[in-house]
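[Automated response] Your request has been received and processed.

Submitted sequence:
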Amino acid sequence: MKRVFLRYFGALLLCAMAFGLAGCGSTSLNRAPVEERPARIASAPASTADAPGVKQAPGFDNAGKIGYYTVKPGDTLLKIALEHGQSFRDLANWNQLDNPNRIEVGQVLRVIAPLSGEVVIKPVPKPVVATAPVDQPTAALAPPPVTAVVPVTPTAPEPATNWIWPVNGSVLAGFDEVKNKGVDLAGKVGDPVLAVADGRVVYVGAGLRGYGNLIILKHDNIFLTAYAHNRTLLVKEDQSVLKGQKIAEMGDSDADRVKLHFEVRRQGKPVDPLKHLPAR
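Generated structure:
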């Protein structure tokens, strides 16, 4: 009996062990669920449409138009004004410049007074040429109209300016379109510098390199005169002056000697002052 009990107990023990092993083999591990993620796709470079636009200089849409000027390296508003026969303050007003000393390369500036209206030039229509049918004889074409040649009237000589000499000194250096845009006149420190004609002061200062203490007068819509290297300036901007009025005293500011550098600008272009001063 004891032997039967031991066999029965042993059988139960083997069954329990077998059941335990089967349970261990079937138990799943407590693992984190796997999340399938798509492979990361490299972001495409931004298109030129999305990229911020290239900054355009102010007034770029007027580039190349008559009456406008594109700023170049080394330009100043005063230099541009002198080369176009204008007051630099007028240029600042026409172009709504808050700071006339700040202009940038590529900026397009108006250099003539704004007009009340724009002139529209209509294109000339092309002439219509009639083509005769292939199966019919072509009619004789009329000869083209003769265009009358209008003789060009020679430009009248420029009226005499009736100016006076700005100083009494002799000519040290004459006009040269490349090397010397005016004439250099001799004198002594403190000699009077006179306005050659009636006009309005459009600049007083030393803001143009190579000119020293400078005065610019505007006489009309054609002529400007410039007086450089002065010791003392006796007028102020926007002041009206009379022909023969003392406007400065001679000096050697930004120069190698005492002299007056005198320029005449015709619509901004430098011309020979000796052609506008009386013969001596």
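Summary generated for your ticket: The chain is about 15% helix and 20% strand. Residues 21-39, 41-51, 118-134, 148-157 have pLDDT under 50 and may be disordered.
If you did not submit this request, please reply to this message.
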